[in-house]
Amino acid sequence: MRIAFFGGTFDPPHRGHLAIARVAAERLRLDKVWFAPVGLQPLKQDSSIASFDDRVAMVKLAIAGEPHFKVSTEDAPRENGRPNYTIDTLSRIKETLRAEDQLFCLIGADSFLTMRHWYRSEDLMFLCDFIVAGRPGFDLHQAASALPAGTKIIGKPQLAPGLVTLHAGNSSGQHTTIYLLSDLHEDISATEIREAFAEGATGERVLSAPVADYIRAHNLYR
Fold first, then answer.
1. Which pLDDT tens digit goes with each residue over 81-138?
2. CA distances from 164 to 45, 93, 161, 195 (A)
3. Distance CA 1, CA 180 (A)
């Protein structure tokens, strides 16, 4: 089983999220993509507007009918109020998987560029392989410069249509693989969506109809 953990605020989940997941599933031959709304992001602790329950409900609506997608509550808010650290979440997930299963972490380019600031990023980098959804202007130099201290690209990139494969390692002999979805141009801002709803917009262009209806029915982002 090839599983990609796709974490984020999903506030709200939009068509860009779905496009990224579909492309990742196709090009990396993924069996499942787990959409995991985060309880409390360490680097952006005031980033969520809608509640966790509302975001989970919207993700369920957004991915309905997608057999390879599921919602995960692995990143639910912690009872002790502690931030949700990705390395903790992925470690717990790996403990539940079989030895033959392969776990990936699917993230956007903007998130990957902050990787060296993540909690225990030098360990997280080697916990699983990464799939990075590119954006306009994102290149190999930026990807290499975002790696945690002590981690560097090894060898030459492997190029295929829409997919760049990078191998990275450290002085301890650990290795990881980074897959760049290089031709994505999804530039949808969740902040702009929320602001548009606050001004009375419908959102159907970038949201599925059920998600847009949920936002209106629950008076979110007003």
1. 788 999 999 999 999 999 999 999 999 888 899 999 999 999 999 999 999 998 767 7
2. 32, 26, 8, 35
3. 21
Q: What is the pLDDT of residues 186-198, one digit of tens each?
A: 665 666 666 666 6
Task: Give residue limits of the domains in the chain.
Answer: 2-189
Measured CA to CA, the distance from residue 17 to residue 207 in angstroms comes to 10
What's 2-189's CATH class?
alpha beta
What pTM was computed for the model? 0.90
Q: Are 69 and 78 in contact (CB under 8 A)?
A: no
Residue 207 corresponds to which tokens in the numbers above?
Answer: 């949201």
Q: Strand 151-160 relative to strand 129-133: parallel, antiparallel, unpaired?
A: unpaired
How deeply is 16 buried, as exposed, middle or buried, from its count of CB atoms within 10 A (0-12, 13-18, 19+)?
buried
164: its two tokens = 């760049």
Element at 132 (helix H, strand E)? strand 129-133
